[in-house]
Amino acid sequence: MDIRQLKYFLKVAETLNFSEASRRLFITQSTLSQQISHLEQEIGLPLFERNSHEVFITEAGRELLPYAQKAVVATNSCLEHIEDLKQMLTGELNIGVTYSFSTIMTETLVEFMKSYPGVKLNIHYRTMEELMAMLKKRELDFVLAFRPLKKDKDIESRVIFKNRLAAIVQASHPLAHLQEVGLEDLQRFDLMLPARGLQARNAFETMVADQELEFNIRVEVNNVNIILELLRHSQYVTILSESTVIQQSGLRAVPIKSAASAMEGSIHTLRGAYIKNSAQEFLRMLSHSTSLMASTLLTDI
Q1: Which residues contact 225 (CB under 8 A, 6 or more apart)?
Q2: Residue 295: pLDDT band by 50, 70, 90 thresholds?
């Protein structure tokens, strides 16, 4: 049995007249009779008793009636909900974000919430490894993060801006006036680094892996926002992408002088997975945001 047959059954049950039911359904009476007959054959019992003048619903028909009504209502509700999803009037959008992307994404989040208040946003801040695991389990629609050091065949990454790893300092710090800083220069300062597992820390450790350098790591923090706040009240140096300080007053990003300092901000999706309309719209907004444009400009300066 299919929904169409149940709709036909309900209309006949409502009118108790095949001619009237077919007229309201905009089909021929022979088509209606044929579909009801197919439904009766599948059930194995007659749903209506007919004579030349009247139509009566049988016991089997009365039993089927509430179930058919529920099935049709559920189907209609489902179709309406899907249409709402198309128009982005409802639904959920699950976004994974590494900490370095928080400032870049804020502008788009505000704009999206104003434009599509019916869409529930679930924002997950995690390490790169945790987010990619969630993406593979289809718990996220997409991830905003820098391109990982190792390629994953199950993940499709699209670069949206290029950035550099930088020494982030307070505006009054001795490094603040420099255009670039060498790795050897960082040995002279107390470092407050993002915790191991965060992308900037991974990139920094890869960069210095073959260098015979010693750094004075005094503090490790697993939250970039806390790091930025602590920097404002100290002379520590941290290592993050230069885009992290966009819209951050009192801080300066000094790019690290190294060929390995390049970082690619990317959108990561599950390869071959369907990208829902709300995700496509969010990414369109992000691509036109002033924060993203500013991130791109940083590399060109």
Answers
A1: 99, 102
A2: low
Residue-averaged pLDDT of the chain: 89
pLDDT at 299: 47
Reading the block at residue 66, the tokens are 């509430």
281 and 112 Cβ atoms separated by less than 8 Å: yes
Task: Dump the DSSP string for the chain.
Answer: --HHHHHHHHHHHHHS-HHHHHHHHTS-HHHHHHHHHHHHHHHTS-SEEE-SS-EEE-HHHHHHHHHHHHHHHHHHHHHHHHHHHHTTSS-EEEEEE-GGGHHHHHHHHHHHHHH-TTSEEEEEE--HHHHHHHHHTT--SEEEEEPPSS--TTEEEEEEEEEEEEEEEETTSTTTT-S-B-GGGGGGSEEEEEPTTSHHHHHHHHHHTTS----EEEEEES-HHHHHHHHTTS--BEEEEGGGGTT-TTEEEEEB-SGGGEEEEEEEEETT----HHHHHHHHHHHT-HHHHHHHHHHH-
Backbone angles phi, psi at 189, to 5 degrees: -125, 155
Q: Long-range contacts made by residues 35-44, C-beta under 8 angstroms, separation at least 24?
A: 35/4, 35/5, 35/8, 36/5, 36/8, 36/9, 36/12, 38/5, 39/1, 39/5, 39/6, 39/8, 39/9, 42/1, 43/1
